Amino acid sequence: MKKALLPLLLVLAAAGCVSGAGADTGSPVRAFPAKPVRLVVPFTPGSSTDIIARLIGPRLAERWGQPVVIDNRPGAGGIVAADIVAAAEPDGHTLMVVSSSFSGSAALKSKLPYDPVENFAGVSLILTTPLVLVVSPNLGVSSVKELIDLARHESRQINFASAGLGSGSHYSAELFKLTAGINAVHVPYRGSPQALTDTMSGRVEFFMSPVLAAVPLIGSGKLVALAVTTRERALPLPKVPTIDEAALPGFEYRGWGGLLAPGKTPRVIVHRVSRDVGQILALPEVAREIVKRGATAKSSTPDAFKELIQVEIATRRKVWKAAGVTVQ
To answer: Distance from CA of residue 61 to its chain's centroid?
Structure first.
């Protein structure tokens, strides 16, 4: 009997199905993660991407048995962080949480220190979210129509904030300007927290803010929410209309957040991380936390997420051109 089993055991061992001294322990999946994982965030603490990272990071650490370190690297609308990740060792130990600003920057810049398609591997979509058009209570504006009237007739210059050049808040505001037929000057910041602060103080007139970051300030009365950018209302702001229903029929913008890895990361690792992220997003407590902030948990395959980015780059190039935003 033992002699009859020996050839079968040798075959199984060669295929990696039998553990022990002769088993393959060096495959990418078995070796991952072999050390702490760095989760790069392109914006400042408190920004929407930072909130996403701190929501999924600890849960990934629990699954992997390795620390997941949040590394905030703000600057140039996310380009600073993307450059770091593009150049990182493609072994799965460096990942980046991105928002739609990744596509916006790629569409806006003619020269980047990286290729936004070839130098990155899509891992998974994490969520979709509306933005919310907010103003200071001191502005004296309580509706989208009143803001449009102010921009059309105000003798002084009207400014709007963004989380950075090419960010989702910049893109959606330019789309809003085009649709409404108004003029306003872009004032870029290094992230949503600073843009929100200057909107509250009245230094800028309006800001298309991620709902995740703005809800607490709206609830405390420090900001006035005029409308959300999607066709449906945001769950945390049920009384706030959409821009479509409030003033501009047909207007829609939907932000998103997702996860990228360096471009040459082994596919088996990319799919492992994508699977783990999808399972985390399916947890009821995680889904509730995301919904509470006005977003919708939504995972995807790596290929589907990469395709989304490519489509958005092409779409945003058209809007930047129509808005007269100079490609740099």
So the answer is: 20
Cα–Cα dist 91/274, whole Å: 14
Q: Are residues 319 and 174 in contact, defined by beta-carbon separation less than 8 angstroms?
A: yes
| Regions of the chain where pLDDT drops below 50 | 1-25
Enclosing H/E stretch for 24? none
Half-sphere exposure of 106 (CA within 13 A, CB side): 22
Please, are residues 43 and 210 in contact by the beta-carbon 8 Å criterion? no
For the segment 158-169, what is each residue's pLDDT rounded down to a tens digit?
999 998 888 889
31: Cβ contacts below 8 Å, ≥ 6 apart: 25
* C-alpha distance from residue 161 to each of 134, 142, 190, 245 (Å): 10, 18, 10, 23
Cα(114)–Cα(274) distance, integer angstroms:
23
Buried b (16+ CB within 10 A) or exposed e, 48-57: bbbbbbbbbb
Of the candidates 298, 313, 208, 299, the one whose C-alpha atom is nearest the C-alpha of residue 253 is: 208
pLDDT of res. 327: 66
Interior CA angle at 160 toward 45 and 225, to 5°?
A: 75
Peptide bond just before 33 cis, omega within 30 deg: yes
User: What is the structure's pLDDT at 9?
Assistant: 37
Provide the pLDDT for residue 7: 41
